[in-house]
Amino acid sequence: MELFILFSSLITLAAFFSYLNVKLFRLPSGISLMLMGVLAALGVIVAGYFSAGFTEMIREKLLLIDFSEFLLGILLSFLLFAGSLHVSVPDLRESSKSIISFATLGTLISTAAVGFSLFYILPLFDQNVPLIYCLLFGALISPTDPIAVMGILKKANLSKKIETNIVGESLFNDGIGVVIFATLLKIAVGGIENFGIKDIGLLFFREAFGGILMGLVIGYIGYRMMKSIDHFQTEILISLAMVMGGYSMCHYLHVSGPLAMVVAGIMTGNRGKELAMSDVTRDYLGKFWEVTDEVLNAILFMLIGLEIVIVAFDLNYLIIGIIMALAIILVRFFSLYFPSLLFRFKKSFGTRSLLIMTWGGLRGGISIALSLSLPASPFKNIIVSITFVIVIFSIIIQGVTVEKVIKKLSN
């Protein structure tokens, strides 16, 4: 019952803050909820100076939710599937070279560059973290999250090509980032001496390609079932089964659930909508997943803001986080620029487009969830704290200004 009351409180707060935003502030919903969640958390922390019992009570309630398990095990499957439904295969095919290179090579470059940057910055603050944990940090902070910025992209009249690249890259680099993180985590826990290049390659191959193959199977089964009937309630139920049953199956097969959901969502949103659904089903299914996406994002962004209450911050961690947030922006540009040069689409893409993608590449809940999923160690607290600072900086600073940056660079 306590968990139900906690979620009821989150939904109530999200509804109230969304109302205030629509009525007064008119910010993108994700950014406004995150900002108000942060302010609410700061209010709880300030209240703790007058009543330590109140802050401790709020902290205990928030600890009822395992944020990492809640996002990675539940929310992520729904959010990735819902986001993939709107991705057009023809647009994706047209930008496939850039999306694949950004999501794979770009994520690997970002993981290495961010990891080594943190490794050399930490000693300046009398902090020493092994390189493998710094690389883990690089892997968890590299995936970008387009959810908070999608409304802004549409308002800014961004070109379809850049919008497709931002969305497509982020959907796939979420999956790739999780696979890289899982691979590095096995090395960190088991020791590098127990993992050869062959073992690492096989693990990566099984997670990544196994996830893509599983997504194709899930998408095809769902498509065939939907095509054989015309009953929108059942077809919506089938789409839910694809997400929940499919993601659970990926977990037990040890393949990438995020990549499977992206592939299944793209299949359902394209071939499924065109050939397996009536106009009525297409309309209802689209609205169902749009509302589901909005509600789950409201809960997610509220939780990200409120989770500050349970994180042990240190002034040094705050400074390191801000330095790394700025460094990550530079790394983000390089991780886009290098693949565009290597695969020879830099000229057609343009430096302005890369700059827009750099500033529009927000970090979000998946980074926090991955940091919280780290096993207990002397290095976990600093990684979690720095991750929170970077995500808050990314969503609030970059998110609030990205529309102006897009308009300025588009002129």
From TrEMBL:
Example GO CC term: the record gives: plasma membrane
The regions listed as transmembrane in this protein's record are 6-24, 31-50, 70-87, 99-122, 128-150, 171-192, 204-223, 295-313, 319-342, 354-376, 382-402
What are the GO BP annotations of this UniProt entry?
regulation of intracellular pH; sodium ion import across plasma membrane
Compartments reported by the entry = Cell membrane
Q: Does the keyword Phosphoprotein apply?
A: no
Q: Identify the main location.
A: membrane
Record keywords, A-Z:
Antiport, Cell membrane, Ion transport, Membrane, Sodium, Sodium transport, Transmembrane, Transmembrane helix, Transport
Report any Pfam family annotated for this entry.
Na_H_Exchanger
Q: How does it sit in the membrane?
A: Multi-pass membrane protein
Indicate the segments forming the Cation/H+ exchanger transmembrane domain, all copies.
13-407
Do the record's keywords include Transmembrane? yes
- Cite the GO molecular-function annotations of the record: potassium:proton antiporter activity; sodium:proton antiporter activity
Please name the InterPro entries in this protein's record: Cation/H_exchanger_CPA1 (IPR018422), Cation/H_exchanger_TM (IPR006153)
Q: Which family does it belong to?
A: Belongs to the monovalent cation:proton antiporter 1 (CPA1) transporter (TC 2.A.36) family.
Protein known as: Monovalent cation:H+ antiporter, CPA1 family
Record the organism: Chryseobacterium taeanense
